Amino acid sequence: MMYTEQDLVRIAKRENNNKRKYLVVNRFQGKHIPVKPHEALAMFRALADTLKGKYDKETLLVIGFAETATAIGAAVAAELGADYMQTTREAVPAVEYLYFSEEHSHATEQKLVKDDIDRVIDTIDRIVFVEDEVTTGKTILNIINILRKQYSEKIKFSVASILNGMNETALATYQEQGIELLWLVKTNHTAYTEIAESYKGDGSYIICKNDTTVMTQTKNKILQKDVSDKKAVESEEVNSPMICCINQIKMNRHMDTRRIVNSIEYAKYCELLYQEIVNQIDLGGTQNMLVLGTEEYMYPALFVAGKFEEKRKDVRFHATTRSPIAVSTEEDYPFHTRYELKSLYDSKRTTYVYDLQTYDTVVILTDAKGDIAEGICSLVNALKLCGNRHIVFVN
Question: Domain 5-197: which topology?
């Protein structure tokens, strides 16, 4: 399938980021904008197709970039049958890291688990980095230079991205270093800053970080009843009392792609997630539903969403994010409402979700561990404000 810049690209305004004032938003990616799962998966397969047949005689390691490209990388690896891992900003217990910077980002520090690279480096021929969008290529060069310094010069590198906005100088640098670039759509970023700054940023900013909720948990069900459910919406308060039923499904096994995984085994794990959900929860009456991932944990949620869509459910998928993006009332702007949350991974960290709607059922999938109660309450409060009463929480 052929894609164009007009098909995919929407420009948004980054909040409090002078290094890069615009954010390139892909409307089929399923990170910030709700998307039909088959549209995201088809685009990811199209990216994988640019790689098929090129490296058949080489052993590949695919690396996806956190947080926006973790699902893309996993999907590409699955299509290629290659091992997969992702970069991360989260803490992985008892490992050493390779650190590098993503200079334009709101959270600049990125890292790879060095222990796993050490283990496989002598068995792979090429590392394929997968991104949603490459603008200058500096971030990927940062990690390639670290890998070349740390390991053998014999390792080859490629970069596959849905969008590529690199200028001629940047492209020449990659060519000189023997780094192959592949993409679906070439973009021109010349006007993006001006476009972003033209938007008013006068959308709805809803704060859902103050917990006013009492939660009691039974075997596999959390019954939640609001005490006040007062949330700040700009300068106003919203009162939305309702009883919300949350079914909880606890998984005994997680596959963590911050560590290297076999893509075939990872697909089996995602299938198991889907089966656990349909075995434990009756979704027969559900017509429209949202499947929501959390921050870096995107591909399993997208996989599950795709399975529900195959069962003729009307499904949308997207994920919470660390990215603080301005929202605006203009019709052509990609985001209109922002919900500010406590992260499930760290209650002291702010995370966001955009343009929530009302669904018959919402399924949240996360790999967050430890004390996640505040993060759950925060996210559920946002969903409740949109009229969502049936929520399935999978962790």
Answer: Rossmann fold (3.40.50)
* Per-residue pLDDT reduced to its tens digit, 160-205: 999 999 999 999 999 999 999 999 999 999 999 999 999 999 999 9
For the entire predicted model, the pTM comes to 0.91
pLDDT for 276 equals 94
Q: How far apart are CA 228 and CA 81, in angstroms?
A: 50
**Domain 204-394 architecture:** 3-Layer(aba) Sandwich (3.40)
Q: What are phi and psi of 236, to 5 degrees?
A: -105, 165
Residues 99-139 have pLDDT tens digits of: 997 654 544 689 999 999 999 999 999 999 999 999 999 99
How many angstroms separate the CA atoms of 128 and 119, rounded?
17
Task: Please say whether the beta carbons of 344 and 375 come within 8 A.
Answer: yes
309 neighbors 317 (Cβ within 8 angstroms): no
Alpha-carbon radius of gyration of the chain: 21
Q: Which of 13-22, 50-59, 236-245 has the lowest mean pLDDT?
A: 236-245
Give the dihedral of Cα atoms 8, 9, 12, 16; nearest 10 deg.
110
| 242: pLDDT strictly greater than 70 | no
Q: Is the dihedral of CA 294, 384, 34, 42 positive or negative?
A: positive
Could you tell me if 342 and 217 are in contact, meaning their C-beta atoms sit under 8 angstroms apart? no
One-letter amino acid for residue 132 of the chain: D
| Distance from C-alpha of 289 to C-alpha of 211, rounded to nearest angstrom | 25
Amino acid (1-letter code) at residue 79: E
361, 313 Cβ separation under 8 angstroms: no
Q: Measured between alpha carbons, how far is residue 159 from residues 6, 79, 141, 162, 262 in Å?
A: 23, 16, 10, 10, 20
Which residues lie closer than 8 Å to 22 by C-beta, 6 or more apart? 11, 12, 13, 14, 189, 192, 193, 195, 196
Whether the domain at 5-197 and the domain at 204-394 fall into the same CATH topology:
yes
Closest of 368, 252, 226, 346 to residue 301, by C-alpha: 368
- What are the sequence ranges of the domains in the chain? 5-197, 204-394
